[in-house]
Design a protein that fits this description.
Length: 261
Amino acid sequence: MNEFGIETKRTPEDREVAAKKLELARLEAELAERELDLITLEVELNEFEQLYLRRVGVLYAELDELNARIAEANAKASPNDEYAQNAASEARAQADKTARETESVKDVEAQEKFKPSDSLKKLYRELARLLHPDLVLDQKEKSRRHELMAKANKAYAEGDEDLLLRMLAAQQNNADEIIGDGIGAELIRLIRQIARAEDRLREIDRKFSSLKESDISRLKQEVDEAETNGRDLLSELAAKVEERIVGARQRINQSRAKNDG
């Protein structure tokens, strides 16, 4: 309608802008949902990896250290044996690697399993829809939004609903700037936003697939499936490593006894 309340015929450009707005709104909703799926998977896998390192990884670190000592003792006893020298170097490198991987979890207490509430998911989803950096053209604003999204991801991982709520309120009060004037500029902006949203969706799908196919994801799936059948697979894995640790200690003790004798 015009200023006098009389309905006017929409131009083809008006109809195209309206159609692009609907398409963008659909993509924004889909993008926010997929961002939620991705961050949830990332948090769950990181949490499971920490659990694995605490329960099994530290045992592998102990086993690797014992194996390195055994290999180094063999190398010392056979200084001209190239194979023994290489084996000792490889064993020490492996022991140092697993020691570094497990160092951060040695004194960390087990955390409660990550279970995001519906309200937490809703807040993150809405914030991601409003804040998404890939839907703006201005580089300064894009950088600002990247920083805020990182902050939102951290708040979601920590279950901080209050922070997400404050960020959402602040973003809702921040008007979205349209670059340029007129329907032509708006149409170009919408087309570019749609293209960027589609690119981001493809990127999320690639990241999601990569995470699902990772070793830690496959192990988590095996552990979850075992749990449904009443088995604690991590305890079973830990028990097997502990048996190997006992064997390594016995070899060290036998070697010491032989040398002492």
